[in-house]
Write a structure and sequence with these properties.
With 71 residues, the chain is mainly α. It is built from two helices and no strands.
Length: 71
């Protein structure tokens, strides 16, 4: 996805340590992990509901559309 190598990851971690300090790292990474978990959960729920179509919320099957040209 982002194609980050080990050098880039180390640089990012050093910047985070400088910015937040060593004492707050567990708190920061815990918040990041929680945010990622919630994002993945929401994305998977969207995939589950998005594949069934717009009428899936009513629980009733959707009637097929009439063929074009029939009035």
């Amino acid at each position: 996805m982002f194609n980050l190598g080990p050098t880039e990851l180390i640089l990012i971690l050093v910047i985070i340590v400088i910015f937040f300090g060593v004492g707050r790292l567990p708190e920061v990474f815990g918040a990041v992990g929680k945010g990622l978990r919630e994002f993945r959960k929401a994305a998977s729920e969207e995939d589950d509901t998005g594949t069934q179509g717009p009428s899936s919320s009513s629980g009733e099957p959707r009637a097929p559309d009439a063929p074009a040209g029939s009035s």
